Amino acid sequence: MFGYKSYTIFGWVIAAVLAVLGLRWGAEILFHTETPAKLGLAIELPEDTAPPEAEAPAELDLGTLLAAADVTKGEKLAKQCAACHNFDNGGANAIGPNLWGIPGSAIARRAGFAYSPAFREYAADRVWSYEELNTFLAAPSKTAPGTAMSFAGLKKPTDRADLMAYLNSVTAAPVAFPAPALPPAAAEGEVAPDAAAPAEETAPGADEGVAVPATGGEEVPAAPATPGAGTPPGQ
Ligand code: HEC
Fold first, then answer.
1. Most C-beta atoms within 10 A of its C-beta, which of 7, 86, 90, 223?
2. Longest C-alpha distance within the chain, in Å?
3. What's the pLDDT band for 31 if we cut at 50, 70, 90?
4. Which of 85, 86, 93, 95 to mutate to test the pocket of ligand 1 (most atoms within 8 A of CB)?
């Protein structure tokens, strides 16, 4: 009786296990057929489209920022600089050099100021363009490593623009701001943002075989083409 009942029980147990496995297989098959459908829906959202378009406005070009700059705000911001600099015509050097007439002037050439060797090296023979000022003011010690100017930098692009507008008001020779990049910047030289897009787009263009010109990436004024082409590398 021991043997017979045991085998019977085993038989039922095995049958039950097989039944459970069978159900799970069945379930898995069902789920498998569902899963691709869900993924398909998720992928259909052109998620790649959002970031490029969202980033573009954040990176306003310098010309646009300067065109909207506020000299009065810049003067207030310059109070942070006043501990080390003065902005008067003929004003003395202090901890930092006098800052009258900076835009367009040679970097590190204020008479009677002892610049750090690091800053002189950074200056080379260049002048204070707005691009240069913008980069320097954002992070002085990154732009001119080893500079004696202990100032963290102005993180906000609009603050830098305001401050540069102020600098351009404390000078005998104001320097015109760079032209704002126009939205249809196709003809303009300000192609910095656009330049990035075609670069990404060149490789995908080949895979996709869509109407996007695989090689002629330069002339792609049609913004929608870029996100479309950007999708394939992600997949
Ligand atoms: C803690 C002192 C300090 C503060 C604050 C400071 N600077 Fe300076 N700045 C310096 C020193 C020192 C130098 C010279 C850098 C060197 O020799 O390494 C300098 C150099 C400069 C130069 C280069 C001038 C030239 O002759 O080419 C500019 C422009 C400048 N600062 C702008 C600013 C502005 C704008 C602010 C405020 C937003 C500011 N600095 C805040 C100390 C300071």
1. 86
2. 116
3. low
4. 85
